Amino acid sequence: MTDLDSSDTTRECARLAWARAATGDAALELHRASADAGFRSYWRGTLATNAAAAGTVIVMDSPPDKEDVRPWLRLRDVLEGGGVRVPRVLARDVEAGFLLLEDLGVETLLQVIDEHNADAHFDAAITQLLKLQAIEPPADLPSYDEAMLARELRLFDEWFLTRHLGVTLDCADLEALDLAYRRLIDAALVQPQVLVHRDFMPRNLMPAIDGPAVLDFQDAVRGPIAYDALSLFKDAFLSWPQARVDAWLDGYHARALQAGLPVPTLARFRRDADWIGVQRHLKVLGIFARLCHRDSKPKYLADAPRFLAYLDGVVPRYPELAPLLEVINRHVRPALQATDAS
């Protein structure tokens, strides 16, 4: 047995012992509930009828030496204080990195949403988003500032263009990207700033009677108001007809105005959503390439054509983004078309 195997076994035993003590169910068994949550893992257990509570529970295991659970707890409490539906914590051991949570089910909104029920689901999601955006961001919360925006954009050329597509960027390419990035960053910084989830999309929403419940919020920042609405309707894993996206964005804008949030005029908001969407799409392409080549998770790159389609729907409409369009036409489109043909 390797040291790594021994460490995993020790953690597994500690997790099960803690869960049994926390629930009062000495016979509780845990089974993996989900993956892909960084260093955190989630485990489902079914409680015996004579335990402290009936039904199923979730154990979040966040090893303290890898991912401190306190930022998650802190943001959870901030969101709950603002009326946002978040997972309820039933028991906790912060030092050990264990939380006992309510079980919100096995399907996220991504699994249940379709063309027929999307209007209702998105209306409920907007209700949660408006509550989130109305919360005053904690004073020490990071800002989606120039450095963070630039760091995310550079994932596109470093991981997607260079590492994944094997592109050698020349001086003209680098100058074009620098100019486009500068314009995208400036556009983001002048938007009204609110609390931003950063991944507000169906995969991180759980259907619930009083929800949807919002997940994966620990990386929230103070940032541009159009970011989360755009993320919701131009999802990383699900595409909708542009006419429906436009209608949902307009609906969000009307409700945000009514709620007293600092949205600009509709025309300006639509432009802001377009531009912050370009920033996000480029970032996600870079992240998916990094997941493939650094973390051995190649499945995400199957969605790369979705992001090219998103970019195709926006970038050509703005002459200021012509430098980015040139790079896409020169390097990205031929590479993806070659992949489709092979």
Question: How does this structure look, described?
Answer:
The structure is a single chain. A 5-stranded antiparallel sheet has the order 1-2-3-5-4, with helices on one face. The mean pLDDT is 93. With 342 residues, it is α+β, with helices and mostly antiparallel strands. It has 11 helices and 9 strands. The protein folds into 2 domains: 3-102, Phosphorylase Kinase, domain 1 (2-Layer Sandwich); 109-341, Aminoglycoside phosphotransferase (APH), C-terminal lobe (Aminoglycoside 3'-phosphotransferase, Chain: A, domain 2), CATH 3.90.1200.10. 51% of the residues lie in helices and 13% in strands.
Give a brief rundown of this model:
The protein contains eleven helices and nine strands. The chain is of the alpha+beta class and 342 residues long. It has two domains: 100 residues, Phosphorylase Kinase, domain 1 (2-Layer Sandwich); 233 residues, Aminoglycoside phosphotransferase (APH), C-terminal lobe (Aminoglycoside 3'-phosphotransferase, Chain: A, domain 2).
